[in-house]
Amino acid sequence: METVNKINRNRLLKWLPYLVFFAGSYIYFGFFADYILFYQEKSSLFIFSHDFLIENIHQPGGLLIWLAKFLSTFFYYPVAGAVIVSAVIILIILSISKIIGLLTGKDAKIFPFIIGLTLFWLQTEYRFFLYNNLGILLQLALFWLAIKYLKQVNGWIPVAINPLWYFATGGFAWVFSLMLTFCFIFDKEKKGWIKIIALWCLNFLIIYISKEILFFQPLKILLLFPFTEVNTGLQQVYFLSVTGILSILPLISKIKLRVPSRISVSEFTGSIIITIFMILILFIIGLQRFDKKVEQYFHVENLFYQHKYNEVIAFNSANPSTNSLTIFLNNIALCEKDKLNDLLFHFPQSPDGQTLFLKWEMSGEILRRGGYFYYTIGMVNEAHRWAFENMVMRGLTPEGLKMLIKTELINRNYEVASKYIAILKHTIFYRKEANAFEKLLFNDAAVNTDSELGPKKQNKLNTDFFSITDDPYINIERVLANDSLNKKAFEYKVAFLLLRKDYQGIAKILPKFENLGFTKFPVHVEEAAMILSLFTNGKLPSLGNLVINRNTELRWNQYLSVFQQYKTDLKAAEPALKRQFGNTFWYYAFYR
Q1: How many Cβ atoms are within 10 Å of 542's Cβ, its own excluded?
Q2: CB within 8 A of 418, min separation 6: which ones?
Q3: Which of 158, 310, 544, 591 could form a disulfide with 146 if both were Cys (CB 3.0 to 4.6 A apart)?
Q4: What's the total number of domains in the chain?
């Protein structure tokens, strides 16, 4: 009985560091940094179809991407995503330990966890995609199989399967090739140098055939894909360093470090020390790498995609952000709830309008999000163009595909919409939405009464023109020239005039509010009107039949009173005015 208990205790001690590492990683990604999983899930879309598989294996490394997309689709649920991410890293640690154990006959206790902690650190960057760690894991797993089970036929099997492995995992296969090379170097009795020559002749032949006959890709892409600096964040140097270290793992295993007997520790003590070390380092990395601003942005984006516009506004009110994309989405939410010019200056704004609309940009994150502004103001075709170009540049994404479906339904292009819906139906977590869209096909009445698409269709611009993506404000003017009653485009025009402090332009449009169905002026427009009265000796500009709210006049008198207390000294009065009127157009006009 004691022997059994001792065996169980030793087994637990052996696995304790792995369990602690997995638990720490799981808690971090599942409950604190789930925004990483959200971003990566929204960045690609896995389709269960033969065509999708063929599309993803058009070049070496495509199969790895396909597999990573399949696993990433489960990031839809953060708990499941945290299990996958943590499992991949822990399997890498375990593979390294097993490989060193096979090569040296002794278990490696520290080195595998150092690599694992480094990869955990890399994974905490939201742009570091799963396929990077997955690519490393596959190389280590195959190498472990090669040295444990594939030594038959004098070790030629790993050499023979290397071309297929390159086509499956792309540039990551060089890690496997280099590990094999170093393994053969130390295999003197079996003439490892012959295998090395054969291995690299095959590698060069693969690259030549791929470049000249099969794929016609540039040499750099053939050598590195799917590794790119875009999908490793700003950490590509560190990632390449890790892959380089793992490539010489057989060489590293030959390094013997002698530990003086006086500082040797028992297995029990060693496991406890490693476990405590693991907890400490995981905590430090998690604390240092957690990005509150990024987490808040993706929380806003998640609410935005769900059309929870009031929650977007409430969250940003409670958690002020200076991120331009956050404010951009928040302004769309304000416009969708008819509050844009009531609450515009409750949030930081860019005087050049960059928080109102985004200029066309083929790289970065702009292309994926910029079209929502056009969707809001009725430029449905322009919103479609942004979504389509993003699909061409980045591939299918859940929200991009849904935007394509919506715009095609609004435009009554039901045949095209049905094709997009068919794609969405072949996903795991978006079938319900696909079925809802399918019910709208070839049914104008259903589209017209849909809570989202109906108002968008009614607000749709019916006259096409070439949009000016470098100056979106011009597009607003063109929309209003074709549809003077487009209320949301008008609200954006007013917001831009306020940001630019264009008092002349504001004065001209004041009488138009009544024509667009406004029963009262937005708060910031009333505030601008009070400033305009300063230029005309207290006389308000023409307002049509609408009037300025009495409360606005009282607040304006309070503002002037505070200002006069500081003898009209702008600098001296700023702290007091910001405290009482920091969310008004008045403060913005005087101090921004």
Answers
A1: 8
A2: 438, 441
A3: 158
A4: 2
Q: Which residue has the tokens 């278990």?
A: 107
Q: What is the pLDDT of residue 7?
A: 57
Give pLDDT < 70 ranges for the chain.
1-10, 151-154, 188-190, 230-234, 257-267, 362-364, 464-466
Tell which residue, 533, 545, 518, has the closest CA to residue 339. 518
Can you tell me the distance from the alpha carbon of 509 to that of 507, in angstroms, rounded to the nearest whole number?
Answer: 6
Between CA 344 and CA 349, with CA 346 as vertex, the angle to 5 degrees is 60
The distance between the two most distant Cα atoms of the chain, rounded to a whole number of Å, is 101
pLDDT given at position 366: 84
Beta bridge partner(s), residue 232:
128
- The pLDDT value recorded for residue 427 is 96
Reading the block at residue 135, the tokens are 């690519």
Per this entry, what is the length of the chain? 592
Question: How high is the pLDDT of residue 447?
Answer: 96
User: Could you please report the per-residue DSSP string of 450-473?
Assistant: STTHHHHHHH---S-----TT-HH
Q: What is the DSSP string of 272-304?
A: HHHHHHHHHHHHHHHHHH--HHHHHHHHHHHHH
In a domain, 388, yes or no: no
Report the SS3 class of residue 128: strand
Is residue 135 within 8 A of residue 226, CB to CB? The reply is yes
Domain holding 530, by residue range, is: 502-591
> What pairs with residue 128 in β-bridges?
232
As a whole number of Å, the CA-based R_g of the chain is 31
Whether 484 maps to a domain, the answer reads no
First to last CA, the chain: 78
Task: Give the C-alpha separation, 9 to 268, whole Å.
Answer: 9
pLDDT at 536: 79
Give the global pTM: 0.92
What is the 3-state composition of the chain as percent helix, strand, coil, each rounded to the nearest 5?
70, 0, 25
d(CA 228, CA 218): 14
Q: How far apart are CA 581 and CA 557, in angstroms?
A: 12
DSSP state of 319: S
For tokens 């269960």, the residue is: 48
**Is the CB of residue 393 less than 8 Å from the CB of residue 373?**
no
Q: Does residue 294 fall inside a structural domain? A: no
Closest CA to 89 of 318, 264, 242, 290: 242
- Classify residue 550: in a domain, yes or no: yes
